Amino acid sequence: MTSTVPALGTRTAEGSALQAVLLDMDGTLVDTEGFWWDVEVEIFAGLGHALDDTWRHVVVGGPMTRSAGFLIEATGADIALAELMVLLNEGFEDRIDRALPLMPGAARLLAELSEYEIPTALVSASHRRIIDRVLTSLGPQHFALSVAGDEVPRTKPHPDPYLAAAAGLGVDPARCAVVEDTATGVAAAEAAGCHVVAVPSVAPIAPAARRTVVTSLEDVDLAFLRGLITL
């Protein structure tokens, strides 16, 4: 977990209780959810198995152990979980080395949060080796810290990653805005007590208490996030 934490004496809007913004990575800031599925399809094809496209909704957004384990069980493929996880990470790294498209609005939002010195964390179920490669493109200067899925006892949908990020920033989870693209990530953020903005990438997400659903990060700016959490 990186830990260059800025002072919390940030410029805030009068009446806003927002202390920090916590952002998911795959499918939220970078358009990579499809990369994972493509890698999974390719690997299992090499093992002699075709993946059912409906399984994509099962594996999206979750920890690699859960996704990989599900696919092994569903296909009956003769491969160990640890071996499959290595292949998945290697295949994903190969794709992001070739291209790493940002989601619409991501660069603008990160720049605005940096300009106004809003403590910001990257919180992902991806492993540290993946996060560090993506950070070079996103700009590590935009994040006070990052939390990887292989650095917490339990990753999403458990609250541990978001609780770790809030603790690392020294803020109250109830005064954090989280931006997520999957039901798994939303569940983790809500279990941590955060306010959530859902930007669905693969499967629909319904609005709920303390949860706002938008169609794109282009609909999200600092004023919008501050409006979620008021004194």
UniProtKB/TrEMBL annotation:
It comes from the Bacteria. This is HAD family phosphatase. It comes from Streptomyces coacervatus.
